[in-house]
Amino acid sequence: MSSSFIPHPSDFLFDYPKSAAFGRVLPKSRIYAHANPGKKLRGRFVSQVDQIVWRYKLAPETVRLAARPGVSEIQIFEVALREPDLDHDVLRAIDRAIPSPILFELSFGAQIKVTATYKRPNEADPSKWVVGDYYGTDWLPADTQRKPLPVALDLAGLYEQMLRALIAEPPRRGESLKDQVERMARIHGMQMEYDKMELRLRNEKQFNRKVEINSKMRSIKSSIKQMRQAKS
């Protein structure tokens, strides 16, 4: 699975209203037409994805919440997998093909997990979408009890609460969703660097190099701790 997935040990699934049910199979060819994936990525679609179903469309007419810039609708896609691991470039291709935020419910056998990225229009070119790291639950039993949608004033507020529920690190006081996601991305990048250094440390033979690597690791660990601390 792509390293851009940040798991959250959450046990929630949302209970979507019947009024928002859409229930249409989304052909892979539609994704190909809009995302123009290369041969390698098409191969992952074939080997990893069995079927994509557009399960729900959360929109003003289906959930009675007003649209806002960047969040006129929220789509819920069910992706049935052929194997338990999914390369997140597959999800990025789907996200880039559909011009609205998406929450994915991945299913494999009798298990299910929810994953999504913070997706927003590019400030320089609103016709393009910014897609970053994916956040999500661990695998859950498919019969896990579902919880009602969060109470919100509009679709942007609903999307924010749905996505924050997938992010392991809680927001700081007054922190916007964009700032929280950017902070998470920095933590993730530092953690990846720490993991690489940990591997180098295990393989390093020279004592002076071990000392140097250890020092860098302590510095990164301290930075991660600071990034995770709540601010008043």
Describe the fold and architecture.
With 232 residues, this protein is an alpha/beta fold. It has two domains: 5-168, no CATH class; 181-228. 39% of the residues lie in helices and 24% in strands. It has helices at residues 28-35, 39-48, 60-63, 88-97, 155-164, 177-203, 207-228; strands spanning 5-8, 14-15, 21-25, 49-58, 74-81, 102-108, 111-117, 120-121, 129-130, 134-137, 140-141, 147-148. The strands form three sheets. Strands 1, 3, 4, 5, 6, 7, 10 and 11 form an eight-stranded mixed β-sheet that branches. Strand 6 (102-108) and strand 7 form a beta hairpin.
Would you summarize the structure shown here?
By secondary structure, this protein is α/β, with parallel strands linked by helices. Helix content is 39%, strand content 24%.
Order of helices and strands: EEEHHEHEHEEEEEEEHHH
Q: What ranges have pLDDT less than 50 throughout 5 or more consecutive residues? A: none
- If you average the pLDDT, what whole number results? 91
Radius of gyration, CA atoms, in whole angstroms: 20 Å
Number of domains: 2
First-last Cα distance: 36 Å
Query: Count of DSSP E strands?
Result: 12
Inertia-based shape: globular
Q: How many helices?
A: 7
The share of residues in extended strands comes to 15-25%
Structural class: alpha/beta
For the report, how would you describe the main beta sheet? 8 strands, mixed
The proportion of residues forming helix, as a percent range, comes to 25-40%
